[in-house]
Amino acid sequence: MTEQETSKPWYREFWAWFILAPLISSVILSSIMVTTAVKHGDDQVTVDYYKKGRMINQDLAQVDVARAKGIRADIQFDLELGDLTLALAATDAGYQLPQQLTLFMEHPIDENLDRVIVLREFAPGNYRADLDRKPNYRWYLRLLPGDASQPVDIDERAKQVDPDAWRLNGEIDFQSTTGVLLTVL
Question: pTM of the full predicted structure?
């Protein structure tokens, strides 16, 4: 009879919790880690990486065209008004500036924050666009002539090589500045 009086339910025993506590905590921590990995996973290599690799030569040719024409762009972001202005100039006197430009703003960490901004000419060599939201921190910039905001298949893009197409690349950190000069080095 004394055995029944001293016997406790299993959940009141020290040794039961001593054994179960690490198991329960490992299940909780592993579920947190799996959830974090699924929500914030690294970007994967694209399926068509070989085709994109072949496009590097075309991209380098675009930089060479920008260098030959002496194209440079001064970009100013007005974060309070939410607009951006761009002054485009070329040392090649025979080059006619495009009616519109496309600025790709690529976030270095989160591709969901990437933006494509189409700038329209409001005066010769001056372009303007509205920002949908205020950019913060660091961004990679890529400027192309025309409206390149529509997605194009890589194979189609390779067939449509424009000899006058150029590209300027740059980087801006909004913590220290609101303007950047894009040139070819």
Answer: 0.67
Of the candidates 88, 162, 152, the one whose C-alpha atom is nearest the C-alpha of residue 120 is 88
Beta strands in 16-99 (DSSP E): 72-78, 83-89
Is-contact 166 69, C-beta < 8 A?
yes
Where along the chain do its domains lie?
2-39, 49-182
The CATH number of 49-182 is: 2.60.40
Tell me how far the alpha carbon of residue 111 is from its chain's centroid: 4
* Nearest to 174, CA basis, from 87, 105, 100, 89: 105
Say if residues 98 and 89 touch (Cβ distance below 8 Å).
no
Q: Mean pLDDT by 10-residue block, N- to C-terminus, for the chain (185 residues)? A: 69 89 96 91 65 63 86 92 92 87 89 89 93 88 79 49 79 90 83
